[in-house]
Model the fold of this input.
Amino acid sequence: MAHTKAIGSTKLGRDSISKRLGIKLQDGQKVMVGQIILRQRGTKYVPGTNVIRADDDTIFAAKNGVVKFTQRTKTRFDGSRKKATIVSVAI
Done:
């Protein structure tokens, strides 16, 4: 007897579940303490004032206020520069 069906049986077709990364609150929106502002892998967005970066690089609010996204040129440790988007909460 056959160990697998003769038709229609495949070992393909599995896919990983999405991680729901990205910006959850836009610039100018109100935020409460502990609310997630964005989920990311790595530090594409840098935490600013009144926000905290979690172990998985998620940025969430440390105080109530309004979300602000600003861009600034930051100097890396080797002297090169890059544009960084800073996420902060204005009270």
